[in-house]
């Protein structure tokens, strides 16, 4: 058991933004709302999946839609609890705790807000170990859990319940509703027993986010030490440094889509990396050859500070470092690759683990 206070929120926001691979919404907006919630209601309590009641019901709360919309379309503030309580009422069963469904900017913060406002525990797990753009792209789906019944609402007060025949249909119908509601909504889905949470959840994601954020925000460590600590903890790789020379993006079908072109600096002078985006960074090509492929994590960070750079904050001239982190092993199963591999997103590449790509890149 661990209290999520203001300092923890600052750290989680940064660490989850790193794991969010550019997606999950602006961490600053979510952070300010979470700080306001604990200031009013007191710190949230974090518990491990091992501490949950196996027979009780738990559920996530999250934003759905295009992260860039949050820059101009702020939540009203009561949507998070409203959507959570709507699902609880529909189920006819008390929900005993909340958890993040992904690691990423605002979606790491919303469950903290709900936990603080309702006095519920926050469970230290998620369903991705990173961020992905679609509802079926969670480890709960890989284990056969249903996304529905699902509650969905917007800042205007529109609210509803969706029940579907499978999780792909849940994504399709909820995405259509999200587009009509202004390209961003608040949802609560995948209601799960404690047993399901232990089986399908990726344990320790909130604690990991807090640990990574504490390192990145440290005033005592120099950047090289910070970088090495982050790589050691995540098993990651430092693959490229460069300057952003072009950003192509737009909002289509409820997603942010685009590409960022990075021109190499220092040791990488004369080389180029293209990162393709659908809310999150999905594939990185170096000189048109695969450097990192989904579901492994592509993390762009500020070259000087290691602060994560989300997709909506990419801009010409920004100097960045590209880090690659191995994904959770569940994503490397055949169903995992079918669900979130490069070909699902329309890229004509077979998934190759980042460790193998790095060995090839380094001639090992």
Q: Largest sheet, described in full? A: 7 strands, antiparallel
**Count of beta strands:** 19
Relative helix content: 25-40%
CATH class wording of the largest domain: Alpha Beta
Proportion in β-strands: 25-35%
Count up the helices: 11
- For the biggest β-sheet, the strand order reads 17-16-15-14-13-19-18
Task: Spell out the helices and strands N to C.
Answer: EHHEEEHEHEEHEEHEEHEHHEEEEEEEHH
Question: What is the CATH third-level topology name of the largest domain?
Answer: CV3147-like fold
Shape: globular
Q: CATH superfamily of the largest domain, please?
A: CV3147-like domain
Low-confidence stretches: none
Q: What is the CATH architecture term of the largest domain?
A: 3-Layer(aba) Sandwich
Average of per-residue pLDDT values: 94
In terms of structural class, how would the helical and strand content be classed?
alpha+beta
Number of domain units: 2
CA gyration radius, whole angstroms: 19 Å
The separation of the N and C termini measures 44 Å
Protein name: DUF917 domain-containing protein
Organism: Tetragenococcus koreensis
Domain S-Me-THD N-terminal: 8-163
Domain S-Me-THD-like C-terminal: 166-354
């Amino acid at each position: 058991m661990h209290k999520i206070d203001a300092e923890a929120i600052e750290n989680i926001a940064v660490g989850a933004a790193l794991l969010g691979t550019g997606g999950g919404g602006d961490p600053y907006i979510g952070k300010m709302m979470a700080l306001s919630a604990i200031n009013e209601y007191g710190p949230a309590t974090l518990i491990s999946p091992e501490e949950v009641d196996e027979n009780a019901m738990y559920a996530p709360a999250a934003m759905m839609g295009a992260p860039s919309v949050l820059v101009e379309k702020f939540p009203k503030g009561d949507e998070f609890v409203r959507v959570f309580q709507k699902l609880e009422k529909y189920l006819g069963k008390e929900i005993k705790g909340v958890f993040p469904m992904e690691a990423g900017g605002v979606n790491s913060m919303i469950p903290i807000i709900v936990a603080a406002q309702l006095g519920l525990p926050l469970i230290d797990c998620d369903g991705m170990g990173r961020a992905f753009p679609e509802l079926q792209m969670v480890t709960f789906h890989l284990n056969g859990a249903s996304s529905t019944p699902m509650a969905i609402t917007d800042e205007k007060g529109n609210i509803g319940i969706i029940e579907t025949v499978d999780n792909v249909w849940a994504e399709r119908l909820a995405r259509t509703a999200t587009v009509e509601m202004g390209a961003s909504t608040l949802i609560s889905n995948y209601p799960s027993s404690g047993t399901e949470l232990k089986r399908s959840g990726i344990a320790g994601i909130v604690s990991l986010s807090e640990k990574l954020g504490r390192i990145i925000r440290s005033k005592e460590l120099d950047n090289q030490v910070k970088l090495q600590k982050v790589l050691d903890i995540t098993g990651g790789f430092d693959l490229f440094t460069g300057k952003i020379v072009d950003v192509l993006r737009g909002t289509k079908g409820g997603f942010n889509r685009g590409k960022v072109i990075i021109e190499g600096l220092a040791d990488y002078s004369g080389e180029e990396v293209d990162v393709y985006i659908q809310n999150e960074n999905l594939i990185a090509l170096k000189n048109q050859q695969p450097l990192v492929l989904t579901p492994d994590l592509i993390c762009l960070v500020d070259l000087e500070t290691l602060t994560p750079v989300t997709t909506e904050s990419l801009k010409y001239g920004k100097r960045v470092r590209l880090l690659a982190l191995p994904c959770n092993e569940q994503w490397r199963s055949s169903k995992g690759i079918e669900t979130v591999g490069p070909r699902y997103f329309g890229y004509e590449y077979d998934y190759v683990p980042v460790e193998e790509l790095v060995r090839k890149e380094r001639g090992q």
